[in-house]
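Hello, quick one for you while I still have it in my head. No rush at all, and the record is pasted right below.
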Amino acid sequence: MSASDTHRAIDAVWRIESARLIAGLARMVHDIGLAEELAQDALVAALEQWPESGVPRNPGAWLMATGKRRAIDLLRRKERFQRKLEELGHELETGGEWAEPDFSAGLDDDIGDDLLRLVFTACHPVLSTEARVALTLRLLGGLTTDEIARAFLVPEPTIAQRIVRAKRTLAKAGVRFEAPEGDERDARLSSVLEVVYLVFNEGYSATAGDEWMRPALCEEALRLGRILAELVPKEPEVHGLVSLMEIQASRSAARTGPSGEPVLLLEQDRSRWDRLLIGRGLAALERAEALGGAAGPYALQAALAACHARAGTAEETDWVRIAALYEALARRAPSPVVELNRAVALSMAFGPAEGLELVDTLTSKPSLKAYHLLPSVRGDLLARLGRYEEAREEFERAASLTRNERERALLLDRAGACARGEGATAIP
């Protein structure tokens, strides 16, 4: 294998194994930042040794054993070396001299528990939402700071600072490397799910930049969600979130045109929807419901997505059921954004006038003042009522508020259509 092939193999191994490696080391040293440094040391060792020795049969175990060795080297320099040595790495020491590690034993049996601890630590509520997202992608996604920065269109130093501050905050707050239980677990789990869904949404509908979607972020969120579903299989909302992401991701290929322009839901070629992802999503929804989680916020949103997935054509969509599900979601997790979506469903089920009535009650909500979808939805409803001049003004206002260039172009096109006395339904 050439050196370039070896480096590509190391990159692939790191993406797959880094989260488990950091999780296992964090359990030993009880410090996320130190665990990542030790994992990076193991990666450097691989970069130095594998081009000559070849990629080991079990590369993840090799990295774990090497990381353990680095941890013990570090602890040797500390006052309480002997107790920590026995606790963390007795299997790697023989007669005071290092023996060749048993790489097959390098990965711990409870690695699933370690990953769960890492998830809960990286998404701890003591951190800001931005810090949780950055740290999660760094530790669990194995992404570099440059990759995270490019994904969110943020300067790389900003992401680096967020990650450093997040580690310091966790250390200063004395956050333990553990998976909480009981009520605390429920509270922390909501933070974890929020982070995963934020990552997915940024990939599904990019808030800024020149691209309508960032598929890599959707894929990363799906990967994290699937891992989480394996780690906590009895939590219905985890399966609800996975279902929601699977079904929404199934539309990805149909959401953009040949030049990357947005294609709205009712105009999409449904033959391009990924039936495998839809099947996975519906199965995850059934699992959430079987666990008694049908009324959970993510399960309700998944049920909404399932209504679209089950409709062979846009005309077959059960808008009455969608409106009812949004009403249930508004009771379970009330927010102006949910009400805005409910207004769209009401307009499709019972006519644009009914939807507009609800939208007009939302125009004074402070949280929606700069939310571009409020004037976008209002413009759509006005256009459907034939009030084209008012609709044009709303679409132009929405275009001025969005930071996504593709979406701005779409909204200005709709404003132009209204100026010509034309209109169409816009559902992202």
